[in-house]
Design a protein that fits this description.
alpha/beta, UDP-N-acetylmuramoyl-L-alanine:D-glutamate ligase, nine-stranded mixed β-sheet, four-stranded mixed β-sheet, 11 helices, 13 strands, Ribokinase-like, transferase, kinase activity, PfkB_dom
């Protein structure tokens, strides 16, 4: 069964710092350059788990784009990725420390994704997974909507990031993604989707699932994860891990969950599979297996 993943392909410049950042001065850090992008990461982890996966995206005709595609292909990802002449591939500076991370993003060629890139690849897919970043950017929104609309009940969406969710509005985001069956989010993203302030208590998974109209997987990092379809709710603990870098943990979790579901696992078993992959991801620097 083929899975199609739609979204960003970027270069991650990851700076893992021990001491807190010293604004206006220097902070010691270990800097690594690696492949990234939520969609590309999820595709890489799916391939790592033996899933037949195709990634849809756009890179520039530069050395970075060539390197990212070579990495993904070496991991077993089929790349339906357009190379845009004259464009610069996307890149992200990731500041990672204290179990948290902050990202500075340049979407580059990712902003050129269109429905024409997506639609020819969807036929026959058992599942289509779309990164939320595709919906946040008005230049690529139509591609995300086309993917979710075509896939319908076989679609899943990752909410991606709380700040842009608040910018577009939770109800608007749900109007774009409502055809999907599964939504992945963390607590901050769930608050943004519900229109709750950042300081509000953690939202109940059942409430989020009812608002979304499908299955919701709420990721709580070191506190585990919660699944709900609006009627049933279950929680799983985190898998043990020594955190080196949290970048891409949610992407790995989504891949573990989706791979297990495709293999016939129930929600609880799939959640535990996601937790294992998330733990594997945080134990290393970078977002890829």
């Amino acid at each position: 069964m083929t899975v199609v993943v739609v979204g960003d392909v970027v270069t991650d410049i990851v700076a893992v710092h021990g001491p807190p950042l010293a604004p206006g001065s220097d902070t010691d850090a270990r800097i690594t350059i690696t492949g990234g992008g939520s969609a590309a990461n999820t595709a890489a982890w799916l391939a790592h788990l033996g899933v037949d996966v195709t990634l849809v995206g756009v890179v520039g005709d530069d050395a970075a784009g060539e390197a990212r595609l070579a990495e993904l292909r070496s991991l077993g990802v089929r790349c339906a990725v357009r190379v845009a002449p004259g464009a610069t591939s996307g890149s992200i500076v990731v500041l990672s420390g204290g179990g948290d991370r902050t990202m500075l993003a340049d979407r580059g060629a990712n902003a050129l994704l269109t429905p024409a890139d997506v639609e020819p690849v969807l036929a026959g897919a058992a599942l289509v997974h779309v990164s939320g970043y595709t919906f946040f950017d008005p230049r690529t929104r139509a591609a995300g909507i086309a993917a979710v609309t075509a896939a319908g009940a076989t679609a899943s969406v990752d909410a991606a990031s709380a700040a842009p969710l608040r910018s577009v509005g939770g109800s608007t985001f749900l109007s774009w993604t409502g055809a999907a069956r599964v939504l992945f989010a963390n607590a901050d993203e769930a608050r943004a989707i519900l229109g709750s302030p950042p300081e509000a208590p953690d939202p109940g998974a059942s409430h989020v699932a009812t608002t979304f109209g499908g299955e919701v997987v709420l990721k709580h990092g070191a506190a585990g994860a919660i699944w709900s379809d609006g009627t049933r709710t279950l929680a799983v603990p985190p898998a043990p891990a020594e955190v080196a870098d949290p970048t891409g943990a949610g992407d790995a979790f989504a891949a573990g969950y989706l791979a297990a579901r495709l293999a016939g696992a129930d929600a609880e078993a799939a959640m535990r599979a996601g937790a294992l992959r998330g733990a594997e991801a945080v134990s290393r620097v970078g977002a890829r297996p």
